[in-house]
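Convert to structure. Protein one:
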Amino acid sequence: MKFHTVTHDTFVIERSYRATPQRVFAAWSDPGAKGRWFSPDATEHTLDFRVGGHERNSGGGPVDGPELAFESTYHDIIDNERIVFSSTLLADDQIVTVSLTTVELTPHDGDTRLRLTQQNAFLDGHEQPDWRRTGTNSQLDALGTELAARTSQPERNTMTIDHALAVVSVSDFDRSHRWYEGFFNRPATNVPMPGQLAEWRITNGGWLQMHREPEHAGHSLFNLAVDDIATAVTSLRDRDYEPGDIVGVNNGVSLSSVTDPDGNIITLIGNFREDY
């Protein structure tokens, strides 16, 4: 008879970085920055940084060893202050470790103190607590290197952008409001101007604004990069929307478009690439 084991372990790591909490938070929330320090050797890294969003990196394991993948789900995010996520480490698609991680950021004398608390359940001895502590410390070292590299770059006269907003012009506010609530499968995040403007937060810093502007209705285009385009298309069709067939374009990227009641075009992008 094979006996299964579980080892529980909790550790806390504290670091101080010569950067503001906003910059440290951005290194966790921006997909490009996160990939550079968290998983530089991964063959795949995706990050949808929002409550309920997912992160996955795979590859980069030992030579001739199992195929490794690290998958996370974000449960709590307070901008520039706190991040809470649960994770699983998989070896050849078998879950070997389950974790809960809390990252806290506190300003201190112009620097940022980071406190990382991780609670782990190591299953059947596939991973050891000391390995995880060593790996996490190495990642936080890499985070410091990432922040130092960005700090050392010459400052340029550029604006700081906190949010990007796509605007869709519609002719009938109530009709379009219902349509977009169904499309996103949730109510608008805000309705700052009832009968005129509604908005949905679709990523941490990305928004869609639906604006009643009949003279421009039907001429808007916007794209949404999704983690699984086949699932997204099926979900829309199940809700009686009519996205087009999925079409491959180049480098593994695929597209499917749907039109709102005014003729505005929303295109779903699968396997979106940040680098070419």
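Protein two, convert as well:
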Amino acid sequence: MSATLHDLGPVLALILVGFLPNEVWRVVGLMLVRGLDEKSQIIVWVRAVATAMLAAVMAQLILSSTGALATIPLPARIGAACLGFARHS
């Protein structure tokens, strides 16, 4: 089972185009926030905005789904989300 370069092309493209650019920005972000106080007002605000955006995306995915997710009944999607939140907490 030896993989040829042709077989690995899509995986290499994903790594090159999807993974590496994201990692570069994560490392830059880590270097920039090294000296920031975690409890400063700006960091608290950024965390609140990020949490609100994540909640909005989750609500949109649950309430107005398209594609294969739309075939799952709304009560099942809401119940699965509630179970996931309860399990995580």
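The chain has a mean pLDDT of 89. The chain has two domains: 1-35, 37-89.
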